[in-house]
Specification:
Helix content is 34%, strand content 17%. It has helices spanning 6-14, 28-33, 35-44, 56-61, 111-119, 137-142, 164-177, 201-213, 227-234, 251-259, 270-277, 291-294, 319-329; strands spanning 19-23, 49-54, 70-73, 100-105, 123-128, 185-189, 217-222, 244-247, 263-267, 282-286, 301-305. Helix 7 packs across helix 10 (251-259) and helix 8 (201-213) crosses helix 9 (227-234). With 331 residues, it is of the alpha/beta class. It has 2 domains: 6-154, Rossmann fold (3-Layer(aba) Sandwich); 164-329, Glycogen Phosphorylase B (Rossmann fold), CATH 3.40.50.2000. The strands form 2 sheets. A 6-stranded parallel β-sheet has the order 8-7-6-9-10-11, with helices on both faces. Strands 3-2-1-4-5 form a 5-stranded parallel β-sheet, sandwiched between helices. The protein has 13 helices and 11 strands.
Length: 331
């Protein structure tokens, strides 16, 4: 049974309207995997006012949260003195006025942590930012608040949603670009934060052909960093298998498009974590990264990984294996 640290339980008793600051800068997937920790805080202290000191992704995720957090950018000028001076003030108030500060950091005693301790007159919990091998990142984050390491099934799932307006716009977009055959829309995200995490384009093209044979209609979702992978997939598709390309400039548009999908398939990427957190039926394709640490959390997620060996530690799953996983979720 999940048990919170004494400091958290004490906070709930003594400061029900506590101000809590969580420092975690990272990419989209890192930000989404922080959500279970934030929900543990909310469950323990329901009226807490939570500020997340994070990257641009903390700002972009905020509109998708059912209970928004306040965001302070990690690269804010207000924070700059905390990295260099031990006599600095706190213009942001995020630390000076906090009842609890949790700092995810590679160095538990660096100058930033020392300044936060000095500025905050209450509890400061520094916690290693990188999860150990074999430990899921969400469990590792939550361990800053718990006695012992929690299991994934003990954590609240990330739970994101889009506005009705964004849903309507996505519905209109899908209706305008897909054939009127009644086929279920399937979203593929063929890119990732690094090409080394991308399932080969010929496999994604093969998956698109298989999906089309099942009567599905394929949409490639493409962000600013995905153009090369998207083009490589499209050029491998025959002319009789068109794929609509959904280019998005903001995260809510991408999220809304994913909510229209009967199935989502993607690499180990932030967008795959987004799909899982939105509740979309999600197939996550893993190769060189470890799903024990980085698999997305959601209500309907299948992870497919190759069979790594000493000779080939980054083995990808076969096309057949991914198609089989997709068939179990495609309805």
């Amino acid at each position: 049974m999940l048990e919170l640290r004494h400091e958290i339980r004490l906070l709930a008793e003594r400061a029900p309207n506590a101000r809590v600051t969580v420092v975690r800068s990272g990419a989209l997937g890192d930000t989404i995997l922080l959500l279970p920790t934030v929900e543990l805080l909310r469950a323990a202290v329901p009226s807490a006012r939570i500020t997340v000191v994070g990257s641009q992704w903390a700002e972009r995720v905020a509109p998708l949260l059912k209970r928004p957090w306040t965001v302070l950018r990690f690269d804010s000028l207000d924070l700059l003195p905390l990295f260099a001076r031990e006599d600095c003030a706190d213009p942001s108030g995020a630390f000076r006025d906090a009842h609890l500060v949790v700092v995810y950091t590679p160095d538990l005693d660096d100058v930033f942590v020392r300044n936060v301790r000095r500025l905050c007159g209450a509890t400061v919990i520094p916690h290693p930012v990188e999860p150990p091998p074999g430990v899921h990142a969400a469990c590792h984050c939550a361990a800053a608040l718990t006695k012992g390491l929690p299991k994934t099934n003990e954590l609240p799932l990330p739970d994101l949603a889009v506005s009705p307006h964004a849903r309507r716009e996505a519905k209109r977009w899908v209706a305008g670009r897909l054939r009127e055959t009644g086929g279920l829309p399937v979203v593929l995200h063929v890119g990732s934060g690094g090409e080394w995490k991308c399932w080969p384009a010929e496999h994604f093209a093969g998956l698109a052909r298989w999906l089309t044979a099942q009567g599905a209609q394929v949409i490639l979702i493409q962000g600013p960093a995905d153009e090369r992978a998207s083009h490589a997939t499209c050029e491998r598709l025959p002319p009789n298998i068109p794929a609509a390309v959904g280019r998005f400039e903001n995260l809510e548009n991408a999220a809304a498009l994913i909510t229209r999908a009967a199935l989502y398939v993607g690499n180990d990427s932030g967008i795959t974590h987004l799909a899982a957190a939105l509740g979309a039926p999600t197939v996550a394709v893993f190769g060189p990264t470890d799903p024990m640490v980085w698999r997305p959390l959601g209500r309907s997620v299948r992870v497919v990984r190759g069979a790594p060996s000493k000779e080939n530690p980054s083995a990808w799953p076969t096309l057949r294996e991914v198609c089989e996983a997709a068939s179990t979720l495609l309805k």
